[in-house]
Amino acid sequence: MRNLLENPLKENCLRCKMTQEFVAETLGVSRQAVSKWENGTSDPNTTNLIALSRLYKVTPEDLLNVFKKRAYLMNRQARQKGKYIMKKHSINILIKSLSQCN
Q1: Residues 6+ apart with CB under 8 A from 92
Q2: How much is the pTM?
């Protein structure tokens, strides 16, 4: 998965010269959580997504679009292997939540 999709979290972290430890401390999460977000094994919740967007000075929608694409690619790979992972519904809920925050 890492090769299929560039990771904006890691790129923004490097661009802003922030360490995983700094991001984790700022958001009040573990460094392992930030690492999982960066390598694609989990996604941040709505609150953390908004906090990340503010920290990196990008829009939440920009970050969400990447997670949406990641979910699409994961589902496509899973279907090819005879499995199906349903994350699209979760992402649509996040998008709806974000639109209500603005």
Answers
A1: none
A2: 0.63
